[in-house]
Structure formats: C-alpha cells, structure tokens
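Complex record, two chains
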Amino acid sequence: MDRGYVALVLNAHLPFVRQPDYPSFLEERWLFESLSETYLPLLRVFARLEADRIPWKLNLAVSPTLEAMLGDSMLQQRYVDWLGAQIELAEREVARCADDAAFRPLAAMYHELYTKNREDFSVLYAGNIVGALDFYFKKGRIDLMTSGATNAFMPIYRDYPEAIAAQIEAAVVSFRAAFGRSPSGFWMPQLGWYPGVEEPLSAYGLQYTVVSTRGALLGDPTPRMGSYAPVSCPNGFTAFIRDVAATDAVWSETNGFPADPVYRDFYRDIGFDLPLDYIGPYVEQQQIRTFTGFKYWAITGPGDRKVPYDAERASLRVEDHVESFLRDRVLQAKAAAAHMGGREPLMVAPYDAELFGHWWYEGPQWIETLFRLAHHTDELQFVTLSEYMRANPENFESVPEFTSWGDGGYGGVWLEKSNDWIYRHVFKMIERMTELAERFPNESGLRERVLNQAAREVLLAQASDWPFLLRAGKSGSFARKQIEDAVTNFNRIYEMLCANTVGTEWLTRLEKRNNIFPSINYRVFRRKR
Amino acid sequence: MNVERLNGLSIDALYALADKMGLDLPIELERVFVVEALLEAFEEDSEERKASGDAAVHIEEKKYSGSELDEIDASLDAAPCIESRYNETVVHVIARDPEWAFVFWDVKDDAFDELRANPAFSCLFLRVVKESVPEGKTAGSFEVVVGEDDDRWYLHLPDEGCSYHVDLYARLGNRSRLLAHSAVVRTPRALMADSLAKLDADAATLATLSGLASLEIAPAPEHHPSRILGGFDE
C-alpha cells in the first residue's frame, strides 16, 4: 500500500428558526450557539492552518436552511445582540470568579471566546459567514456540498417524486445563489438513502453523496471493496460509504474521544447551577433556565461529582486522540489494502459539524491537530470527495439499500408513535400542492407569490428535525407548532386559491416571516411523468 | 434531567411526565417518591438509549440546546391544534424498516355512514398483499381487522426486500368491498444481497473489515427460505 485516504465530511445543519414577531426566541439560540462554538472557531482553525501552510481539505455540507439563516440580516443582528449579552455575562463571571483559582481562567477563557467571536463576526467577516466559507471553497480547501432543502428524510417521501424534486431543486438553487456555482455533492439528510433517489439527484447535476455503511453493505449487488471505495449506481451517481471505525471513534457517546473524563462537560452549565437572581438576564425571558455556554466542569466520570475543567490538560489529551485516530486509520488502511488488488483504501468520516465545539468543546482543536499531525505522515492523505472521484472514476456498480444513520439503521427515528401523525398532513399538503401546480401552471403576479409561499410551507413541513425532536422529547411543543403552522398556512392558501380570494396583507406577513427560498418555483410540484 | 429540575415542576406535571414515561404510579403518592421513580426511569431510559448501538442521532440531540421547558414540554402531550383528518377515503403505507410498515387510512363520512346503515357491514380490514416475489419467497396476502375508530397501525411484514401494497376493505356479510388501495412499498433488505459463497475471499474480508459484525448484518443464505407468518394466505 502506498497510502490510505481519509475524507473528513462535516454536515452543518440547523432547522429554519426565525421568529421576527418576538423580540427574542429561545430556539434561535441554536444558531447563535453553533456560530459561537462551532462555525467561528472552525473558521479560526482554517485561518491558522492556512497561515502555517498546512495542507488541509475537507467536505462541508451546508444545509439550505442554515445557509438562509446565516445570510439573514435580522438573525445576524440578533446574534450580535446576543454576543453583547454573553460578553456582559463573561465580565460578571470574571469578577465573580476572581478569587477562585480553578474557575478564574475558565471565566477568562469564555470572555476571550465571545469577544473574539464578536470581533470576527462583526469586523473580519462583516456578518458574512457564507462568504467566509466560499473563500475556502474557491481555494479548493473545502469541497462544499448541499443537502435537502429542509432536511427532509427522503425515504418517507419516495412515493412523491414531486416532493423529492422540490427538496433537491430548492437546495441547488440556494447553493447557486450563495456560492455562484452548482454543487456536485449532496448530503442525504440523516443519511436517508433509498434505491432510485440517484435518478432525481443526477437529473439536477449532482454527482455524489455519502451513504451509511449498512446501506452500502446491503446494496445490490454487495460491494466488492466493502466501505473502502465508493460504489457507482448504474446511472453513474457515486455513493461514498461511511467508515464505521473512523466515525465511532468520535461518535460513540461512551467510548468515543469526546467522552474522555478530562474534556469539558456539556451538561453542567451555570444557566442551571447559579441563582436566577444572577443568571436571569442571560436566560430565556429572565426566568426559564437554559444553557448559557458557561461550563466549568470536566466530564470526570459518571455521577454528579465533577472536577473543574483544566483546558491545558484537555489540550494534551487532544494530541493523544489525534495520534490514536491516525494510527488506527493507518492500521485499518493496511489491513484493507491487502485485499484491494492495488487500489488504495478510502475511509470516509462523516460527522455533524455542530458537535465539534458545541458538544465536544475541544472538537475544533482536534480537527486542527488532525491536519497538523497528518501533514507529517506519508501513510495517510486527506482528500475531498470530488478530488477522489476525479482520480478514481471507475467504481464497482451497486445500488445502496434504503437505510439511515438513525437508531436501528432505517426509518424508525422519524416514523414512530410520537411523530407518525405528521405524515397524514404532509402527504396531503404534497398532493394538494401538486394539484395546485397542475391547475395553475402559468401564474404570475400575486397568484404566483401565493403559490410559491404554499410551496415553501410544504418544504418547511417536511423537515426531519421536527419528528426528530418530537421523538427526543426536546423542544417538543416548538417542533409540533412548526408542523402545525406550516399545515395551517398551507391549508389557508389552498382554500384561498380554491375560493379565488387572496388576503394580501396576511400573505405579505407570511412571506416576511418564512422568507426562505426567495427564488422558489412552485412548478417543481407539477406531476412528474 | 436531575433532581433539581424535577423539583421545579408541579406535582401535576410530574404525574403527567410519569404517564408519558409509562410509569403506573399510585395516586396521591408523596412528591419525593414520584421524583425518585422518575429519576430511576430516566436512568433506565438513558442506559437503553446508550446501548441501542447507533450513536449518531443521540449525538445530534446535543445541538438542540435544552431548557427546563423540555421537561414541561414532555409533560404536555397536547393534541395537535390542526384538523386530524381530511374526510377522504384513502390508505397510505410507509415502509419503516425490513419488518415494519406504518399504515394510515380514513373513510369519508358519507361512505362510512352508508356502510354503517348496511346491516351486513361488520368491520373494516386491511389486506396486505405481497407483490414482488424474489427467488425463494412466496406471494400471498393476509388480513388485519381494524377498529372503526382506528386510523393507523404498524404492520409487521413477513419478508424483507419485498414489495407490498395495502388495501382497505369493508366486510359486508360474506363479501368484501374495496374502499382504497395504497401505493406499492418495498421493505428494505436486512440481509446482504449476496451470499458469502458468491463473494470472493477478498470481498468477504473487506465486508468484514467494514464492520459487518458490529452492524449485525448477515450475508444472504445459500437458499433463502421464505419466512411465513401465521395468517398469511399462500
């Protein structure tokens, strides 16, 4: 074996949460926390690697909903306001912990983090995070991918080719608007693949995706290179295969690197630990306890007794974990290469981007160290999926099976007793949207606006995040309301169109609130023949 | 979830939470015992989830930062505020995994009234029809009687990698009336498409190195027997 290849694939996604009718909104914090703990820290990692001329490459899928929120001026301003409050809290924490030798440096660490975030976001990037990603895309460092328009779990909608096409088309159009070129890679939300989806993906010019190991191994016929090389569908669409060992090293909640006792604990947060009198101004509506991001304890071990977090110790452990990751990949590649007839093995390691930094606080440092140490080895090389595909155009022909990366490996996370009620409504919306698109194929002006808004509501209702949250019991009533709002809005539009009356004031308000996909074309829902 | 967060909830919310978690607690139990039972249930739930094998979605939960509203949310199993049906006669089926499909249906009010007025009407039932018949598997159908108030069921399907459709019928004496017909769905495979004998040694080794054992995937057997459930009409 000359060398093994590793492709690091990050999926950056958050559901569309934008509530202009409220001065602040709890779930908008998901974006603010991800910006503060993942996206901005990762951009700093990229900048340092560039400055030190370290070769680095990765794939990054940016979901259209996240892309829309990152580009939204209202959310950008709210983020700056939120950062202001975080810095104020950090200042108070620095004062509160002044006499505490263990916590003083941690309070200072958070003060530095939020101050740096404000400086980078407001000054360095002028709020344009998408532009910052585009910079590395154009340099060839990041191979950007798109994803389902609203993160729909596609296998559930396989009987509705119009809905699948809408998820893909809206994503491709958004990507072009943001990055000025067409995407070649498509992240299947939740790695939810089904045989046949390669056809609409190819029809929109997409060339590759990543599938679960289970999906590939159950593919027809069985892949001859296991997960160590992608497979090509008969239409030429390429499916890269998730590597179990590489992903488990990071994913496993119990044995993965992030579970190491010296790393920062995710759950203990001053938002729940300090008196409301003190923490009130920094939690929701001054009274609902939430995570603040100020976490002072190390994981330590099971139970509530924790030791204070030691950032220097954690930093040393990051190096150990990177060395372990690289060593294991070299061994894995050597074992596989002996059976690959001269082809060099590829290990694809896909992860949710937000977990680097947000959940695993040391995650961005792990990525930085990974590239720095890999630079010194000849046995492994990082590649992007596009780059690998160009160098290896011939692959074994196989069609992966319907699978996902959820519990059980199929659709059980998004279709179970807590969330199955959703599909009666969403299927009906899709059928009615198709009916509307057939009845009104050539509309313009106000009626076109109405139809486009109806199409947006259908897409928003398809988001897999809501059934996911209903199952997880997190933000359940919020998730339920997102579905109900989309159903209600759509049905109102449907009735308005059937009665030939349009409430322009209501429509304008709705367009302003759910302002995602400005270039959507409702005709994508016309029946596929 | 910890004791402090549970202590912040009202006793009604604690009982609602216990109901939601499937705990059958005596009424008017002292608060401290309710909290204790909930903590135990959460601990068990957490262990089960950790043991369930695929961590990806558990990790994904972390990006949705929590608030104490999560517990309050969990205690409020509010009915959706939207109409629950569309007054149409329809049946849909969604394949969930190799063994289970979700079926939901409705019967238009007028049609249902007409059925109920017919003295021969006895019940509604679903007929599950296996469509595609790969080598070694058997075609057939089976029926499931459903209640008049039911509108969804999870159905166990006998064969992985097969296509099915579901018909909704009304039973009228010795006759059946077809009310609605679903699209065809295919259950995904649980076994590899090829048997080990069909793979060469290198391919079999690479499949193993890819995590076949940890994913609990078995190769297709040499002669794939049909798995037939009782009640399946041959």
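Note: Residues 50-54, 74-80, 225-234 of chain B have pLDDT under 50 and may be disordered.
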